[in-house]
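input
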Amino acid sequence: MQSNKSLWFPFLHKEKILLIFIVFILINISIYTTFQNSIFSYANYDVNYPNAGLEFFYYIYCIGVNPFFFILLMLLLPNLVSYDFLNMHQNHHAYMIETRINKKQYYFDIFKKNILMTFIVMLVIQGLMALIIHFFYLPIHFNMMNYPIDYYCTTQVLAHNELISFIFFLIFTALGYSIVSSLVFSLQIIITNKYIYRCFGVIFGILLVLIPALIQGYLPIPEAAFLLQINNLVAIGMENVRVNPFGLSNLSLYFISALLYSLLSIICFEIFIKRRQIND
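output
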């Protein structure tokens, strides 16, 4: 138990807290800019639309409308645990730990801690966002609204009950970023330059948004490409530019994409361990 706790120490330092704080400040600037440039800033909008606060909260997740929020969170992913792990390996600071316990077990422990830390940080950021929107922009209420078909912004993303839908959205989005973070962690076997790796999350995230749209025309089943789009994990039901592939519900699409990304992450992690064992 004591040795397991000690594995956290290299990843918990003041610079990490400062980085998360700076990213959170930038997120708030992004929220303010998005609010000022949207219909939600119109006078008395919340009076005419009682669900305005909740609608605005979900509106921020639309990658096509507000890409900066997505970019900032993707920037954070490799810098929570993965970058420190890569830096420790290149500086041989983890050598004593690797020799004291099984290397594969050590890597797996850090892999799990990266997922856990990402989940907690993303959940806290989203919760604080909701509070800031509620107190400083538009009050968030949970009303049982009946939205017309193809309404531009719905608040019943995962369930008809808006409170349950909101809770599920926070949890599943944090879990979605955690799955992506696990994949970013494993890809440090390819991106060995630690300074480039710091920003790799942004590049990787943009590619995961664009590549499915670019390759769909080359697949026998074009809709299958969108099962790999990162939007399904981190912006559940927010992109209304097209219908869900194969007529899937938002929740079904999320779980299928989460399964595909998880399998890819596990495969990359196994390759990552084998290459480290061979090359070290």
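quick obs: Residues 2-279 form one domain.
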